[in-house]
Amino acid sequence: MEQEQFRRMLHNVKKWIVCTLTEHEPQKQPVAEAQFTKLKGYYPVDLLRRVQRVVVDRCPVPPLAATGIPQLAEIENWNLKGIPWKNTIFIRRDLADWDAVHFHELLHIVQWQCLVTDRYLTAWAIGTITRGYRDNPLEEMAFRHQLRFEAEDAPYDVFGEVTTEIAAWPDSNFDLAKIA
């Protein structure tokens, strides 16, 4: 994939995100209103108030094949538990009461805030194309912290740990030449 092709795809995905968030505006509610008391020990309260959640039957995924990333097209058919888009998490209706899926998607929101949209989407695409979904560095981090959340009772500063971890990432996590 050429860099210009990737930039066009990124532009199309960002437009899709804006449309999707606008379409779901009436269903949004702050995560803080969902009453997941355990999350308050892990994430700053202002983050829980600022991040919106939308409960859906099926999580929205951009038309990746049509936007120029055939390597990611299969994701369109997955029945994802949740997915983050900017400052909003979409959670499948059957999992709306599961705090661990909210924890996982909130961690992606923290990653998104650290990296900002272009770098987050680029890192996610490169990681998924080159390593697969589960071993994508963003997903690996989210699953690792989710396991810790589910296994431990002692809260910790997720925001601080994720920020530190991302700051130490090599530039290769954003190198488009890896998927050329």
Q: In words, what does this structure look like?
A:
This protein has 180 residues and is α+β, with helices and mostly antiparallel strands. The chain has one domain. It is 47% helix and 9% strand. It contains 5 helices and 4 strands, in the order H-E-H-E-E-E-H-H-H. It has helices at residues 3-23, 45-50, 99-131, 137-151, 158-167, and strands spanning 29-30, 52-56, 82-85, 88-92. Strands 1-2-4-3 form a 4-stranded mixed sheet. Strand 3 (82-85) and strand 4 form a beta hairpin. The longest helix is centred in the middle third of the chain and has 33 residues, at 99-131. The termini are close together.
Strand composition percent: 5-15%
- Sheet with the most strands, sense and barrel status: 4 strands, mixed
**Gap between N and C termini:** 4 Å
Task: Name the overall outline.
Answer: globular
**Count of separate structural domains:** 1
Series of secondary-structure elements, N-terminal to C-terminal = HEHEEEHHH
